[in-house]
Amino acid sequence: MMLIADSGSTKTDWAWIENGTIVHRVTTAGINPVHQGEEDIEKVVEQLFPRKNTSLKWVFFYGAGCIPEKKGVVEKVLRKVFPDADRIEVESDLLGAARAVCQHQEGLACILGTGSNSCLYDGEKIVGNIPPLGYILGDEGSGAVLGKLFLNALFKGALPDGMKEDFLQSSGLSYPEIIQRVYRQPMANRFLASTSLYISEHLDVPALRELVKQNFRDFFHKNIAQYGRHDLPVGAIGSIAYHYRDLLQEVAEEKGYKLSTVAKSPMEGLVAFHAH
Asked: pTM, whole model, 2 decimals?
């Protein structure tokens, strides 16, 4: 039996695979070795596997923060829990996205969620990556940047009359509270991305549709175009890609790219990848 984990800072999706099919699925707290030490990661894993597990032979863990210098921390914990596993592999969430949307073929893979990232994938490994730089310096195409663009347009009068009052009423927020959430409280990126729910419910407003498309245009211009590979398909993983896929498709075509797979989660694609 095989175990595949897809982990972000908020949650980890675990799936047990048998004969290419998901037979069990569980969600736990997120694991990110950049922000968590070995002891914290061990606590999360041991909640799911309180005793050493000898039935799993292949374990594939894809996670945010699983950069080369930090992968060993997660692997060490997994080795304790699965001492008899023939293979334990810890890789980045970006490689997980690439394997999910491109499988064993060359392509351009993207993560478009709260944050954003992209890579050039040769069918086996990542061979190019434009640094995303985070939501202050970069992260074009992400939910956090979409939230920044939205709140800027909202308070600077670039959206239709009455929309500011409607948003404040429906969200229960005030201008001072928004400033507080962005500049004084942790996880400002998640707060900014949370405005996407309101945006997605008002896409009949042309100015909002254009805002979403501009966010995607910036992503293609500043990230995807840098790979110089218009010949390759573009696949995307994440909530922003999934919920705005029609607008993402429009922008991809506008920029001369073919959009292939778009999925909210990489799990089904990873199951298919490891089945072959």
From this structure: 0.89
